[in-house]
Amino acid sequence: MTAKLYHQNGCTQCDAAVLDCRANADGTFDILLDRTAIYPEGGGQLSDTGYIGPSRCTHAREEGGNIWHSCDRPLDIGQCVHVAADEAVRLDHTQQHTGEHMLSGLAHSMFGCTNVGFHMADDIVTVDFDKPLSAEQIAELELKVNEAIQRDEPTRTVTVTPEEYETIEIRKKAKGLQGDITVVYAGGVDSCTCCGTHCQSAGQVGVLKILSHMNYKGGVRIGFACGMRAVLSMQRDGARMDAIARRFSTSADKAVDAVIKQGDELAAMKREFKRRTDILLDYRAKELAEKAKLCGKTRAVVTMEEGLEANELGFLCEKLCACGNMVAVVLSQKDEMLSYRVARSADVSVSMRELIQAVNALFGGKGGGRDDSAQGSAKLNGSAKDSAEQLKAYVYRRLKG
Ligand SMILES: [Zn+2]
Question: What pLDDT score does 175 carry?
């Protein structure tokens, strides 16, 4: 069994003896020591990284009380080595882990929330609570955690017997524990059994910033960052806000209002654009209908229009077909993409579902629809003009029967 020195007052270095060294197929080595300062992944906390003598350790795991270190070079069994965990990595993981304690402890005491999930990665930390919280409650929670960080109360660990454990009141009790049980009182606002590493006092967490919150399984998932992670995150947010403010030629505190104002203006312009396009398409439909080709008993319009969106092709077809006794085939090319729409008046029986197949075949496109209306698109190498003339001839022949 490996002695776990990382629990002793933020220990990150020790001397140890190599008990075993096993080669893996991927070229790495699993090294077992009699004692270690390198924290193995567990309890929601990521593994430390560090050095064991000259060998780089990228991950550690615990198996039945033994801690196996995944390393890049072998060590001799029996050799004495110096073990050094990366201090910046340990501090970062310890800050996130202790911050999670404080967030969970206060969410429990303030709002009766139970922590039902925790996830720590190199780039994000999340905690799941079983109850939904409003944005105001989450902001209040963030303030209370940071007030507790400023009070800087020490973290205490207390070892109790299983009998004593049954009688004490703590936020989270693990079940099925045997032997002496370690209870952690973190930052003056949380208490639970835990195997992670903890800041020696709340102040060492530095700051806790809530970065996101979303409804999750009937409760809430909160993303947060502590210490330098929080500072870096705030720096990035500040830079983004400055960039937006510069784009709007305003100050950062007025940037949100500027974005909302521009969004409202854009929505109003889109409504006005749609109104004017509708008027334009009315005129265009009338113009086209007057020049429609009479094919047997049915009138036909086959036209290539410039710069129309797919929905506008539909509007133009509708307006043409509203004239009655009409088959409308409207195409529009934007760069390499050709869009087309076919439609008939209610008093025409030719199937548009069939007609669109002919258009697809002519342009090598894809599309389909109903008997009264269909649409499609094709990717072209050049202009669709010549093919459009062929299509016109085909539609006229088809309608003449
Ligand atoms: Zn803990």
Answer: 79
Average pLDDT over residues 163-190: 88
- Residue 68 and residue 111 in one domain: no
Cα 183 to middle of ligand 1, angstroms: 9
User: What distance in angstroms lies between residue 46's CA and the mean position of ligand 1's atoms?
Assistant: 12
* Structure token pair of residue 88: 């910046």
Between the CA atoms of 207, 212, 213 and 214, what dihedral angle is there, to the nearest 10 degrees?
Answer: -160
Together in a domain, 304 and 388: yes
Residue 217, burial from CB neighbour count under 10 angstroms (0-12, 13-18, 19+): exposed
Which tokens belong to 35?
């004692």
Q: What letter would DSSP give residue 52?
A: E
Residues spanned by the domain of 72:
3-85
Distance from Cα 58 to the centre of ligand 1, integer Å: 22
Q: Band the pLDDT of 381: cuts 50, 70, 90.
A: confident
Same-domain pairing of 347 and 375: yes
* Strands ordered across the beta sheet of 115-120: 115-120, 125-129, 219-226, 208-216
Tally of domains in the chain: 3
In sequence order, what are the beta bridge partners of 36?
A: 4
